[in-house]
Write a structure and sequence with these properties.
15% strand; 3 domains; Transcription Elongation Factor S-II, Chain A; alpha/beta
Length: 758
């Protein structure tokens, strides 16, 4: 679902300063997971046996089979792939079955877009086959380029170019004296989740939305296009959902509860997450005549794309007719699920997941990740045949209907919510993988644990640890940016994981159920271009991505170690010093944002008082002054700062207790008590009242941005209150976050007390 590069860049560029909060902490040595939780020799042998079982050829064979036909939700091949995975799980020793949900997924019936002025142009609206790619020649069961959960509609209007279609772009248009009310807008893909663009367009009065991939972002400006290179060719269309997932993912008709066969359902008109205007994606070949015919002001420099034209804003004289009609039927989502019951802690679950549905052949997204998960499961299953059993229950799942809106995973979480809250230890997600560097995101209580694993796994090309390769990359980037002395993130003991917004199947686990979650992938060196197009094929992946599947196998190795160490640990490897360091940065970042909002407000109002905007404008161009802003009030962060100090103290006291803890000094019952409290720490960050305008999102630390979608907002109740100048929300969520930190502290303190008594 989500582009890798967004995740990848986050690793290297989310390097906030350390928090400026004075906190007394004990200076104690931080021990490794092996030191206190595992039998090192036994665990190393287990992982060595696991490694010996992995075979890259399996990934190749399975991808070729599973991506041989289009496999969107509701297609015959999607069901076949689900049954195929479930049968493989069973063959490897898992209890296995296919779990189903009935979800709303619209398919296009009428799909028309025509330019009717200043001249008539028939647009192609299709992706032709590419020489050397047999998969691209298939036409049966291929969904055309469309946006799921667009509204039906038949609209005709002048076109307005809105850059990436973000709020700041509409602010710029207003200053240019341009109103999109009653118009159809055309926006570039990128910078935000695609569903944000029609949502904002509708809020500004537009009656339709067209989206295209500009070659400057995703085409010949970046590199050679397919089939000569990996990047998007002129006919490639990015399909994708425009469901309002930042408000709530999952089935649109069953908000907050599972879409079982007999579930009560809303009407389509009642479903708040369906877009209110018709939306269509097109290629940059079809965008070219539309944009070329436009007039009006020349766009700002930052808006210019890579097409061989002068970009104008409009409105018109380009006028288009957009006609869309959909089949709004329920489709069966098939989730293959395999389980190995734990031998010691059967009611403690470790879960792995990757979706199996794609928009077309879906070789890279998602099958590359799915086959890596399958090889990991196969290797673990083979070890059980020698007599070994995991201590904790392992669950492996292939999610269906991820692409339309995280439907398969969300409905599964909503259906099993009580058990998940009581039993789930960690959810580990993958969603496609490629060639390059490890991308690691997730709950920061797991940051130290993940770092321990990546120091033990080697890059398959450079023969250094994954940790070492990431650090080398960061140092070179810092050198090129002339920021080596100013930025020491590359020398941090543990590399930071990025905080997760949304865009893949970890969303319901992390943001709704409060389960600690991870998202792992390789990428950054594969090149893009095939994403959600007809050309995401086995042939494309073999030529331009991980064609020998060595990085996919390495991903199996990384995630396999995570699973095996979580399974076998006497004391679960949650660690909280790294967590509070990141939370401290979140608090500091929000305070910096407040300072920026204040200074920007004061400067803007001062310029308005001096009439600077009017005096400085070019008289040959329309450029209106911005509106005056209300003064930013003062906010009391002391409750949050105090709660953070308490959490920091709790984190270090836990480390102190862990250092003193002697293996074998706790009974099985006491170990279970400790682990129960550790599992509850991340859940403590959730609040039943949820976030403003979207109660389904309950995590007070992280959430997808309401107007970014994929991109994360940390301490979202505070941050978005500041960004949107909703001061009451800021005050409320300072208090709510403080309460969440104290709930987490309480659970850490309880675990510490039991360890200290041993």
């Amino acid at each position: 679902m989500k582009r890798f590069y967004f995740l990848f860049l986050t690793i290297f560029f989310s390097c906030a300063e350390q928090p400026r909060i004075d906190t007394e902490i004990p200076q104690v040595k931080m021990v490794s997971t092996f030191d206190r939780a595992l039998d090192k020799a036994k665990q190393q042998q287990l992982e060595s046996d696991f490694d010996k079982t992995l075979n890259p050829q399996n990934l190749d064979t399975w991808m070729k089979h599973m991506s041989s036909k289009p496999h969107h939700v509701g297609s015959p091949w999607s069901k076949q792939n689900a049954e195929y995975a479930a049968n493989k799980f069973k063959e490897w020793g898992f209890e296995s079955g296919v779990e189903t949900f009935e979800v709303l997924v619209p398919f296009p019936k009428i799909r028309k877009l025509s330019m009717i002025a200043p001249n008539k142009v028939d647009l192609k609206l299709f992706e032709p086959a590419v020489e050397g790619d047999q998969s691209s020649e298939m036409t049966q069961d291929v969904l055309p380029g469309y946006n799921a959960f667009s509204a039906d509609g038949n609209v005709t209007a002048e076109l307005v170019f809105v850059n990436y279609g973000l709020n700041e772009d509409y602010e710029e248009l207003k200053r240019m004296g341009i109103d999109v009310k009653g118009k159809i807008v055309i926006a570039k893909y990128g910078r935000s989740f695609r569903g944000i663009k029609p949502k904002i367009a509708h809020e500004n009065g537009a009656i339709g939305c067209i989206m295209y991939s500009d070659p400057k972002d995703d085409g010949y400006v970046v590199g050679d296009v397919y089939p000569d290179g990996p990047y998007r060719n002129e006919y490639g269309i990015q399909r994708g959902s425009v469901l309002d997932m930042p408000a709530r993912p999952g089935d649109a008709l069953t908000p907050g509860y599972a879409a079982t066969k007999d579930a009560d359902r809303l009407s389509i008109d009642e479903a708040s997450t369906i877009m209110k205007i018709p939306v269509m994606p097109i290629s940059y070949a079809d965008a070219l005549p539309l944009l070329k015919a436009m007039r009006g002001p020349v766009v700002p420099d930052s808006w210019k794309g890579g097409l061989p034209i002068t970009y104008h804003v409009g409105p018109g004289p380009t006028k288009v007719n957009l006609q869309l009609e959909f089949d709004w039927s329920l489709r069966t989502a098939y989730n293959p699920v395999g389980k190995i019951t734990g031998s010691v802690y059967p009611d403690e679950w470790i879960m792995r997941g990757n979706h199996h549905d794609g928009w077309g052949h879906g070789a890279s997204d998602p099958i590359s990740g799915m086959v890596s998960l399958m090889e990991e499961a196969r290797a673990i299953g083979e070890m059980t045949k020698t007599g070994w059993r995991p201590k904790r229950t392992l669950i492996y799942a292939g999610w269906d209907a991820e692409e339309p809106g995280l439907l398969g995973s969300t409905e599964w979480v909503e259906y099993n919510l009580n058990d998940i809250k009581e039993k789930m230890v960690v959810y580990i997600n993958t969603d496609g993988t490629g060639v390059g560097y490890l991308s690691m995101g997730g709950s920061h209580s797991l940051e130290k644990f993940v770092n321990e694993v990546i120091r033990d796994v080697k890059d398959p090309v450079h023969n250094v640890s994954l940790d070492s390769r990431l650090r080398s990359r960061m140092r070179v980037r810092q050198y090129k940016a002339a920021a080596f002395e100013a930025n020491k993130e590359s020398e941090r003991t543990d590399l930071r994981m990025y905080a997760m917004g949304a865009g893949s199947d970890y969303t319901a686990f992390l943001h709704h159920a409060g389960v600690p979650a991870l998202n792992m992938a390789f990428g950054g060196e594969s090149g893009g271009g095939a994403y959600h197009s007809l050309y995401d094929t086995y042939e494309h992946y073999k030529r331009f991505s991980d064609g020998n599947f060595i990085y996919g196998t390495t991903l199996s190795r990384v995630n396999g170690r995570l699973v095996l160490r979580l399974s076998e640990a006497d004391i679960l490897p949650f660690r909280f010093v790294n967590m509070v360091d990141n939370i401290g940065n979140f608090i500091s970042d929000n305070k910096k944002l407040l300072s920026k909002v204040k200074s920007d407000t004061e400067l803007r109002n001062s310029l308005l008082e001096n009439n600077d905007f009017l005096i400085s404008q070019n008289p040959k161009k329309t450029y209106l002054s911005p509106e005056r802003l209300d003064k930013v009030p003062e906010f009391n962060f002391k409750p949050l700062d105090d709660a953070f100090k308490r959490l920091t103290s709790s984190a270090w006291k836990y480390e102190e207790a862990l250092l003193q803890y002697k293996k074998g000094s706790l009974s099985a019952e006491k170990k279970s008590e400790v682990n129960a409290f550790l599992r509850k720490v991340d859940q403590a960050f959730t609040s039943e009242k949820g976030l403003p305008r979207r109660e389904w999102f309950r995590n007070m630390l992280y959430a997808p941005g309401y107007y970014t979608g994929y991109g994360v907002k940390t301490l979202p109740g505070i941050r978005e209150g500041l960004e949107e100048r909703n001061w009451d929300e800021v005050r409320l969520y300072i208090s709510e976050v403080a309460k969440a930190l104290d709930r987490a502290s309480k659970n850490i303190n309880s675990a510490t007390r039991i360890l200290s008594e041993s």
